[in-house]
């Protein structure tokens, strides 16, 4: 029995992003105000960012910045 539910959004390909309640809750908070999300590897920070971005796209453009090096390595270099 497959109980997996997927996020339904016009900008997200059908049946590709599993719906996880904690990610939806985090995205909901991040949409309301500036938010720093700290989760262990593999728990969906990228999905939360995706959900926030598709929400913002309906109001205009988005800009996603990402360092080329790991943040920890950048901190150690300075």
Written description of the protein model:
The protein is mostly helical. The protein has one domain (21-77). The chain has helices spanning 21-32, 45-57, 71-77. Helix 1 (21-32) packs across helix 2. 8% of the residues are buried. The mean pLDDT is 86.
Features:
3 helices; globular; 41% helix; mainly alpha; 78 residues
Integer-rounded radius of gyration: 15 Å
Portion of residues in beta strands equals under 5%
Structural class: mainly alpha
Low-confidence stretches: none
How much helix, percentage-wise, in residues? Answer: 40-55%
The tally of structural domains comes to 1
Summarize the structure.
It contains three helices and no strands.
List the helices and strands and how they pair.
Elements: H1 21-32, H2 45-57, H3 71-77
Helix pairs in contact: 1-2
């Amino acid at each position: 029995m497959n109980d997996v539910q997927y996020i339904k959004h016009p900008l997200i390909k059908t049946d590709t992003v599993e719906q996880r309640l904690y990610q939806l809750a985090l995205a909901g908070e991040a949409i309301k105000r500036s938010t720093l999300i700290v989760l262990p590897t593999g728990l969906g920070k990228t999905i939360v960012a995706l959900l926030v971005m598709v929400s913002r796209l309906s109001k205009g453009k988005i800009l996603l910045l990402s360092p080329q090096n790991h943040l920890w390595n950048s901190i150690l270099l300075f």
